[in-house]
Amino acid sequence: GDSVTQMEGPVTLSEEAFLTINCTYTATGYPSLFWYVQYPGEGLQLLLKATKADDKGSNKGFEATYRKETTSFHLEKGSVQVSDSAVYFCALNPNTGFQKLVFGTGTRLLVSP
Amino acid sequence: DSGVTQTPKHLITATGQRVTLRCSPRSGDLSVYWYQQSLDQGLQFLIQYYNGEERAKGNILERFSAQQFPDLHSELNLSSLELGDSALYFCASSVQSAYSGANVLTFGAGSRLTVL
Lengths: 113, 116
Hints:
The complex is a heterodimer.
Chain A: E1 3-6, E2 11-14, E3 19-21, E4 23-26, E5 32-38, E6 44-50, E7 56-59, E8 62-65, E9 75-77, E10 86-93, E11 102-103, E12 107-112
Parallel strand pairs in A: 2-12
Antiparallel strand pairs in A: 1-4, 3-9, 5-6, 5-10, 7-8, 8-9, 10-11, 10-12
Chain B: E1 5-7, E2 10-13, E3 19-24, E4 31-38, E5 42-50, E6 53-57, E7 64-68, E8 74-78, E9 87-94, E10 106-107, E11 111-115
Parallel strand pairs in B: 2-11
Antiparallel strand pairs in B: 1-3, 3-8, 4-5, 4-9, 5-6, 7-8, 9-10, 9-11
């Protein structure tokens, strides 16, 4: 079935460090891919998305490229801030006729000053 | 504020009891989704409704049921509660139900259920 695998957390970085959170997926067909972020005590917010191979999603300095050949959608940011501390979820929509998001387990990011 | 409203924010109850969680979707959204977030299972899709009709079912237990009303708000009913039902329950909404990879789900802040 469809699944998403994320790197285990927590990821601990100092402010201004480079961030990579790995995400790989398994899906039949042509899924759409998403990164959602969950700040403490809040719901999930869409961070970025990509709907086809080689698309790059970007928002707030975060980027991720849909790589079909490696079935990956790694999240990157060049310089993290303390305010980026949150849990990041990679997700896919199988695009099999109805809307359903399959989530990874989430990766907690902790950024220290 | 995402525009998706969930009540109550927190709920503490005992095993064997029944609770109802409520969700008001974002204005204009016809689809409502329920997700359960627990420490051991992560985010699990439970069920989806579109314009009052059930459209998709995920890992929803038989003790759980949901419905979407004519005004598009939705309720998730959890009965015969067990300790393992303690979790965050999220509601999300989207504009449409049909195939659309770009269709984005907007999440509410969640209802935290604690079963003692």
